[in-house]
Amino acid sequence: MAAHKYHKFGLKGLLFVLLLILMFTMIFKNVTRHQGKSQKEVKVGKNMDRWQESFMKQIRQEIEITPIIENMERVQISWQRTKKAEKGLVILLHGCSHDGTHWFSLPEERRIVRVLLHHGLSVIAFTSQDTNSGCWDGSSIGQSNRDIQRVTPTLQKFCEREYSEYYTQETLSMCPPLFSIGASSGGSFSSILSRALPIVANIVQISTGDYKALLTEPKSLKPQRVSSFDPKILESEENIYPVPPTAFLYMVNDHNWASESVIGHVVQKIIASANKLGPNLHRQNAVIMFEAAMLPITKMWLKDRVDNVSKETSEQFYHECVTEGFIDGDGLLKEDPRSSTASRVLLRNAIYEKEISRGALEEQLNVAYAHHELTSEHIYQITTWMLEMLESKP
Ligand SMILES: *[C@@H]1O[C@H](CO)[C@@H](O)[C@H](O)[C@H]1NC(C)=O
Asked: Mean pLDDT by 10-residue block, N- to C-terminus, for the chain (394 residues)?
């Protein structure tokens, strides 16, 4: 009996160890692939998302999304602190026709927020001043930017209230390590914001970022130590922060201003300007690209990605895609859902509306087609990279 028990335990233990080894090699392989290449090369993270999906399922049970939405100095903020050992605070910047609360209500955004919270990163989403267009002020270095002037003092107030313990004579900072993630207009704004605040790493989705903000060389390379954020910092150029490590994510069917080739061109320019500044800046100027491919729609696709969608609805959605000929044999959308009549038929089906909003379904279709949409693709890898940038911070 004892031997039998021992044997069973040993087998389980062995399987567990094997699983751990497998996980570590997967993570390590990806990390080293990014690190191993010289800074002259553009680094592209391809899909390793089957693994990410099983991780997503696991943390869906574990991480509850319970944001606090409030106005601070007349600026709307939506935020949630991590329950894990806190490593930093991530600023979330929406795209046009959205607002900060969507980071906690739409499916892709919720998936991103969950992964960040799981990794010990708290989140704060701002809403742009222009709530008609929902876009951010694009005024860059040397100009006055209304959204910078709102976001920086609000963030300062927020940190003073939430993080008084972080302020010491040593740090002289009232915020924990800061990160920024923006999509589209929010991606451009994220690159501008990253010159106005001490950002550890900047994530720019489906956007080239703002050229001037990404390519203007800093006057001083010393990391700043400041006791307060200057809302007019960008206007003079004197004390702007260096370009932080930046990750770009593009989508394969995004053929216009945020295409792979346009973003690749910007990345080459950042690398060239970093090389000019010297090899020691390697870390500070790390730049990485991620590609979001088309995603196959399967029976459980909608259920697995969107909270509140039942198995039945997910299957029905899939069958409608098949019978109406919206997807090919591999489950890939045949046409751009933004312009196809197919998606209009799908979106008209009121059955789905009980479980998923039209906006959420449109988002999911755009992600499946990989055309200009905020996406949670690669978010696990991106978060790992963000934390790596924190550890190697000069
Ligand atoms: C899921 O359903 C519950 C109950 O109807 C609702 O309160 C919640 O807001 C829904 N969640 C999402 C993300 O739509």
From this structure: 42 56 48 36 49 89 97 95 97 98 98 98 98 97 96 94 78 84 98 95 97 85 69 88 93 94 94 73 74 94 94 93 92 92 73 86 95 96 94 80
Please work out, in degrees rounded to the nearest 5, the angle formed at the alpha carbon of residue 383 by the alpha carbons of 389 and 88.
65
DSSP code string of 244-304 = PPEEEEEETT--STT-HHHHHHHHHHHHHHHHHH-GGGTTTT-EEEEEEPP----TTHHHH
Which residue, by CA, sits nearest to atom 2 of ligand 1? 308
356 C-alpha to ligand 1 centroid (Å)? 9
Decide whether any atom of ligand 1 lies within 6 Å of the 310 Cβ. no
Q: Which of these, 314, 296, 364, lies nearest to 107 by C-alpha position?
A: 364
pLDDT, residue 218, reads: 74
308: left (phi over 0), alpha (psi -120 to 50) or beta: left
Report how far residue 89's alpha carbon sits from residue 179's, in angstroms, rounded to the nearest whole number. Answer: 6
Q: Which atom of ligand 1 is nearest to the CA of 107?
A: 13
For ligand 1, atom 5: residue with the closest CA? 308
Nearest Cα residue to atom 10 of ligand 1: 308
Find the 2 Cα to ligand 1 centroid distance in Å: 49
Distance of CA 267 to the CA centre of its chain: 18
- AA letter at 301: W
How many C-beta neighbours within 10 Å does residue 252 have?
14
**Global pTM?**
0.87
Write out the DSSP string of 214-240. HHPPPS--SPP--SS--TTHHHHSSSP
Give the closest residue (by CA) to ligand 1 atom 9.
105
CA 308–ligand 1 middle distance (angstroms): 6
User: Running DSSP on this structure, what letter comes out for residue 43?
Assistant: -
Q: Which domains are assigned to the chain?
A: 44-293+375-391 (3.40.50.1820), 301-369 (no CATH)
